[in-house]
Amino acid sequence: MSPTPEQRRKNRNTALALLIFVIAVMAWTIWSIASASR
Amino acid sequence: MSSVTAGHVPPTTHDHDHDHGHHGPEKGWRRWVFATNHKDIGTMYLVFSFAMLLEGGVLALLLRTELFAPGLQFFRPELFNQFTTMHGLIMIFGSIMPAFVGFANWMIPLQIGASDMAFARMNNFSFWLLPIGAILFTVSFFVPGGANAAGWTMYAPLSLQMGPGMDFTIFAVHILGASSIMGAINIIVTVLNMRAPGMTLFKMPLFCWTWLITAYLLLAIMPVLAAAVTMLLTDRHFGTAFFNAAAGGDPVLYQHIFWFFGHPEVYVMILPAFGIISSVVPAFARKPLFGYASMVYATAAIAILSFLVWAHHMFATGMGTTSQLYFMYATMLISIPTGVKVFNWVATMWRGSMTFETPMLFAIGFIFVFTIGGFTGLIVAVAPIDIQVHDTYYIIAHFHYVMVAGSLFGMYSGAYYWLPKWTGVMYDEKLGKLHFWSSMISFNITFFPMHFLGLAGMPRRYADYSAQFTDFNMIATIGAFWFGFSQLIFLWLVIKASRKIGEPAPAQAWEGATGLEWSVPSPAPFHTFETPPVVK
Q1: Quick check: B522 and B506 in contact, CB under 8 A?
Q2: Of the residues B29, B90, B153, B320, which has the maximum number of CB atoms within 10 A of its CB?
Q3: What ipTM does the predicted assembly reach?
């Protein structure tokens, strides 16, 4: 059975939240290293 | 919290064979290239990771061949260092991590009563990134200067001085990291959003719990690694100086950032194995898992602590006494939740009606040998000892007891346990037992002597050594070849099972097995749980 539109929306929103977390961690890493090695 | 655990998920009244009205698998190569079915993708992950295990294993045997006797026999030291580096990278990023994602793909939807993973197309893309990464790793041997020889840790400044082989490694790590992140997002969304009605989090099998926690770990650490290797790349080619001491950067910063990724990475490679063992031991002890909730909390505690101990890999870089003491004691703390797990597995077996089929043999072998690796981990957590044995064969012995006897034996336990569900036939039990005993004995012949070599001061990552280390090196090399060839038994056994040679497996292949995956026929139909089962 294919996921319902409601299920798809919920899945997409959860994945987007996780993706934002991943990008934030990567940005934080580069930012903190750049600050420390200045 | 429910007292009903995953080991007691009651059978549903649901008819699971729902292939009617749905298309089956595509024929030929299209089935695999365009696969979106979680079982097909799981199979591809497992086959790929075993192929990479063999490639990494061949590199290991080349290393052991050179180390059979002192002096340089076969390889230049530069090439030897390429072998050590690529052996580590291929085993970690090409074999162990993808293998557990393969298990997750196959088993998580079946265990939580979902029809598939949340993002089927992304699942396909995650998999097909893997061969690209593997090709980059492999062809890097043939570029000018050869493959990356800076060690799997890619420490600066050595990694800044390597030839183009290093860039291949950086791109491969980016690609494999992206695959891992997509896989982790898929697993988290599937577990959180797609569980069958009544399948509360605390009714999930431990394997789903350990993978959920592992997936969060991956999301927290893979971006850190990606950022670190990106900075290596910009230092190498774009004039930045994050880690280049000659231009004002700090190479030790790289080590901090790498191990902030690297230590939790160890748990990424072991927590799913804990989940497998927590499924297998109750099945063959015919008892529910002892302390289900404490297992979940212990897994979470291990994951959290893994972020707080990274600098125990760096005692030898020089650090203040206060920092040393903090990282030493914080590392020792991890033994508490790990001890809870080992205690619970043993307590599950206590007074159980145990039988010793191959999955259980590998599970008990795992507990026994992984615990040795855990104890040596405690020993090297002690800063003054670590400084003595840093970069010696003691460390090689320690982490192979964790990674081979831990991750690999855990995977074998799971593979034998679920093989009847995957293939529809019972595997050859005699061959399985031969595989276990042959692997167990040869593993210990290979790696136990390395403790002595390390304590005697033999450094790692050298093609040559002093004559005093000869005997133990010869023993280790003999053991390594024995271990390597033992894995072909597994390959032969799986080929037989996949060609349906063997007794047909019933839906519930093991008497003591519980959980939703055993309520569907064997082999699991192409589509399962099209209508979600109701878990009471």
Answers
A1: yes
A2: B90
A3: 0.94
